[in-house]
Write a structure and sequence with these properties.
The chain has about 475 residues and is of the alpha/beta class. It has two domains: about 270 residues, 3-Layer(aba) Sandwich (Aldehyde Dehydrogenase, Chain A, domain 1); about 190 residues, Aldehyde Dehydrogenase, Chain A, domain 2 (3-Layer(aba) Sandwich), CATH 3.40.309.10. The protein has 15 helices and 24 strands. The strands form seven sheets. It has a seven-stranded mixed sheet, with helices on both faces. The chain has a six-stranded mixed sheet with strand order 9-8-7-10-11-22, sandwiched between helices. The longest helix has 21 residues. It is globular and about 75 Å long. It starts with a strand and ends with a strand.
C-alpha cells in the first residue's frame, strides 16, 4: 500500500486521517494520502508567504535556472510519476508518460519567459514628472489540480507562478493525488528554496475555508467544473482574491461537405473518446453537413467499434481506459437514459462492456447518439465521458447557432477545405479557441482562455504568465 504525505515548508508532514486512492481499472484501493490539518494548512500559508518575501526578490535569471533544473528533475523521474498517474487515473501508460514530459516542457517554457517580464514608460503629462510602470508577482498562489490531467494541468499553474516570483500551495485532486505530489517532489528535489512550492491534501471544505479567508493567499488557480468555479467566485469575495479558472466545456465539432472526410472521422473519434472522454475540450457534439451525414456517421461508428478498452498497463496499449470513479459510470447512464427517453438512438455502445476482464473497473463503452434534440442532456450539459452526439446542419448560419447554443465556450473544432469560410466561421464561434482541421487547441506558446461559463482568465502563452503579475505605477517629480 502506497502512502503519501503533504509537503509543507520543505518537510513531509503526516496529518490526521487519510484519503483512499482507487485504481479505476480494477476498482480497488491501492494507496492512501494523509489529510492535512487546519494547523498544518495555516503553517503552509505562512511558510509560503515568508518564502515569497525572498523568492520574489530573486533575479529572474536565478528563478529561471531553478525552473530549468526542476524540468530536468521531472524528466529524470518521469517514468515513476507516469506509473503513478496511469494507475490512479486509468489512462494508458504511454499517454501518462507523454503528459509528464509535457509538464517538464511547461516548466522550461516559463523559465525562459520569466526572464522577459517587461514594464512600460508612459509619457509624462508635465515637464517635471516622470512615470514608470512595473509588474510584480501577485504573492502566494493556491493551485488546484484536476484529476483528468493532474500533472499537465498543475504545471500550467505552477510554472508561470514560480517564474513570475510567486510561491505556490498545490492541492491535488482526491481521485489522483499521487502523481501531483510526485511532480511537486521532483520539482523540489531540484533545489527550490524552502516554502516556495508546497502540496497539501485533505478535506475540500476545510482547505477552502482557510484558503479563501486568509488574506495572505492572493490568487487561486483552478482547472475544474463550472460549478466548482462558481463556488470559488463566491468564496473569493471574502478577500477579493484574483482568480484564474479553466472550467467546463461542451465542444462542437463541425464537419462541412468539402472537408477531408477521412481525417474528420479519425480526429472526431480520437477527440471524442481519448482519455475516456474525460477532457475539458473533448468533442461532445458533432455537426455534419446534411449531404454527407450517412457517409460520415457510418464511418465514424465503424471506427468507434474498433476501439479497444483496457487498463492502464494492458498490452497492446488500449484506446479507451476507465472512468475515474463509479460516479462517472452513473453519470454516463443518466445521459444515455435521458437521450432514449427523448427519442434519441444509441447506435454504438451505451452500456458497461460485457468483457469479463473489465468488470471490476469503471469502464463504459464508447457511445454514439443520433436523432438528437436540443433538450437532451448530451446537447446542453458536459458529459465528461465517452459519449458523443451526432447531428446535422444545412447551412453556415444554422450550424453556428447550434454550436453557440450552450453556456460553455472553451473550444470549437471546424473541418473544411475552404479557408476563407473557416476563418469567417471561427470569428463567429463563441469559444476561446477554435481548431481548424486539427484537434490540438492548446499549445504552450498560445493563450488558452475560456469564454462564457468556461472560465476566467488565461492559461498558457505569455498571457498565462501575466495572470500572476500585478501592475505598479511609480511617479516621480524631478
Amino acid at each position: 500500500m502506497i502512502h503519501y504525505q503533504s509537503f509543507i515548508n520543505g518537510e513531509w508532514v503526516e496529518g490526521e486521517g487519510v484519503i483512499e486512492v482507487v485504481d479505476p481499472s480494477l476498482g480497488e484501493v491501492f494507496a492512501t494520502v494523509s489529510k492535512v490539518t487546519k494547523v498544518q494548512l495555516h503553517q503552509a500559508i505562512e511558510g509560503a508567504h515568508q518564502a515569497f518575501l525572498s523568492w520574489s526578490k530573486k533575479l529572474a535569471m536565478e528563478r529561471s535556472r531553478l525552473l530549468i533544473k526542476a524540468a530536468t528533475s521531472v524528466r529524470e523521474n518521469y517514468k515513476e510519476i507516469a506509473t503513478l498517474l496511469a494507475r490512479e487515473q486509468g489512462k494508458a501508460l504511454p499517454d501518462a508518460e507523454r503528459e509528464v514530459l509535457g509538464a517538464a516542457d511547461c516548466l522550461e517554457y516559463y523559465a525562459f519567459l520569466g526572464v522577459n517580464i517587461l514594464g512600460e514608460v508612459p509619457p509624462p503629462n508635465a515637464t517635471n514628472l516622470r512615470s514608470i510602470a512595473i509588474r510584480q508577482p501577485v504573492g502566494v498562489v493556491f493551485a488546484v489540480a484536476a484529476w483528468n490531467y493532474p500533472v499537465s494541468l498543475i504545471s500550467w499553474k505552477v510554472a508561470p507562478a514560480l517564474a513570475s516570483g510567486c510561491t505556490v500551495i498545490v492541492k491535488p485532486s482526491r481521485e489522483t493525488p499521487l502523481s501531483t505530489i510526485a511532480f511537486v517532489k521532483a520539482c523540489n528535489d531540484a533545489g527550490l528554496p524552502r516554502g516556495v512550492l508546497n502540496v497539501v491534501s485533505g478535506d475540500n471544505a476545510l482547505i477552502s475555508e482557510e484558503i479563501f479567508s486568509n488574506p495572505l493567499v492572493r490568487l487561486v488557480a483552478l482547472t475544474g467544473s463550472t460549478e466548482t468555479g462558481k463556488e470559488f467566485v463566491r468564496a473569493s469575495a471574502k478577500t477579493l482574491k484574483r482568480l484564474v479558472l479553466e472550467l467546463g466545456g461542451h465542444s462542437p465539432f463541425i464537419v462541412f461537405a468539402d472537408a477531408d472526410l477521412s481525417k474528420a472521422v479519425k480526429d472526431g473519434v480520437k477527440r471524442s473518446f481519448r482519455n475516456a472522454g474525460q477532457i475539458c475540450n473533448s468533442v461532445n457534439r458533432i455537426f455534419v453537413e446534411e449531404t454527407i451525414k450517412d457517409d460520415y456517421l457510418n464511418t465514424f461508428v465503424e471506427q468507434t467499434r474498433k476501439l479497444v478498452l483496457g487498463g492502464a498497463f494492458d498490452t497492446p496499449v488500449p484506446d479507451v481506459g476507465p472512468m475515474v470513479n463509479e460516479a462517472g459510470l452513473r453519470r454516463m447512464e443518466e445521459f444515455v437514459n435521458d437521450a432514449l427517453a427523448k427519442g434519441g438512438k444509441i447506435i454504438c455502445g451505451g452500456k458497461k462492456p460485457t468483457d469479463p476482464r473489465l468488470q471490476k473497473g469503471f469502464f463504459f463503452e464508447p457511445t454514439v447518439i443520433t436523432d438528437v434534440s436540443p433538450d437532451m442532456k448530451i446537447m446542453v450539459e458536459e458529459p465528461f465521458g465517452p459519449i458523443v452526439a451526432i447531428d446535422t446542419f444545412k447551412d453556415v448560419d444554422e450550424v453556428i447557432l447550434k454550436a453557440n447554443s450552450t453556456r460553455y465556450g472553451l473550444v470549437s473544432y471546424l473541418y473544411t477545405s475552404d479557408m476563407k469560410k473557416a476563418f469567417l466561421i471561427a470569428e463567429r464561434l463563441e469559444s476561446g479557441s477554435v481548431a481548424i482541421n486539427n484537434i490540438s487547441p492548446d499549445s504552450l506558446y498560445a493563450p488558452y482562455p475560456g469564454w462564457k461559463e468556461s472560465g476566467i482568465g488565461v492559461e498558457l502563452g505569455v498571457h498565462g504568465l501575466d495572470e500572476y503579475l500585478e501592475w505598479k505605477h511609480i511617479k516621480l517629480e524631478v
